[in-house]
Design goal:
Blueprint lengths: L2 E11 L9 E7 L22 E3 H12 L5 E5 L9 H13 L3 E6 L6 H4 L4 E5 L11 H11 L3 E7 L2 H18 L5 E6 L9 H13 L5 E2 L3 H6 L7
Parallel strand pairs: 2-4, 4-5, 5-6, 6-7, 7-8, 8-9
Antiparallel strand pairs: 1-2, 1-3
């Protein structure tokens, strides 16, 4: 019997990245040891056994919410690629693929897990900027782009010009080494809980992207515009 640590399973319209606007079911794992300073889901960090859920229960909940209409699932967290989660995530993906779900995995940019990445339909891979307090390995990023660039996006949360410049530097280095654009790279203007809409930050990022030759897609967090930056499971 496979047991997962699940924070919540819910239906919502994707609010960020290149699939923004598409309804899907989110399976949010409980437990993360990465520790991004500007994380907006810190309640998912603790590996709390009270969030235990059997695989069959999780799949049944997805099916119940789907009602046969929404056949896209985003596996997120927490950190679903933490080694402690990997066996359960693999089992969940296999069960959902048998039921013809399109599977996206939210990858924190700290690991490339081939056994999971080979199975999923799409990978949202983070490049951690200086404001997060976490570093993304350039070697891991290159590996991810080389192997999975055809079915992935790279996302960077941008809080200020330093974040933009760090992202552009790695983008340029990756492009040079691979002699191709490293997948679709999305910039997400940082919008923290309890913060008013960061209009000036958003405008600055748009302007910087234009000045640097428009290598990125700038896509805000639609769900925060609609429901507010503090609202969960939307």
């Amino acid at each position: 019997m496979t047991t997962l640590l699940i924070n919540t399973i819910y239906k919502a319209t994707e609010g960020e990245g290149i699939h923004v606007g598409i309804p899907q079911i989110f399976v949010r794992f409980q437990g993360c040891s990465i520790g991004c300073v500007n994380c907006d889901s810190k309640e998912t960090w603790e590996f709390d056994p009270s969030f235990s859920m059997e695989l069959e229960t999780a799949v049944s909940e997805v099916e119940k919410i789907s009602q046969g209409k929404i056949k896209r699932v985003s596996i997120t967290g927490g950190d679903p690629l933490h080694p402690g989660h990997v066996p359960g995530v693999l089992a969940l993906i296999k069960e959902l693929k048998q039921r013809n779900y399109f599977i996206n995995i939210e990858a924190a940019g700290t690991r490339v897990v081939d056994e999971i990445f080979d199975l999923v339909d799409f990978i949202s891979y983070d490049f951690k900027t200086p404001s997060t307090g976490v570093r993304t390995s350039k070697d891991l990023l290159l590996k991810m782009v080389e192997q999975y660039g055809h079915k992935s996006q790279i996302k960077s949360v941008i809080a200020h010009k330093k974040d933009f410049e760090a992202t552009y530097e790695v983008y340029y280095q990756t492009q040079s080494k691979l002699d191709k654009v490293p997948g679709t790279w999305v910039l997400t203007p940082c919008y923290e809980p309890s913060e008013p809409f960061p209009m000036e930050r958003f405008q600055q990022i748009l302007q910087l992207n234009e000045e640097f030759g428009a290598p990125f897609r700038v896509i805000g967090q639609q769900h925060k515009w609609v429901y507010g930056a503090d609202q969960k499971s939307v």
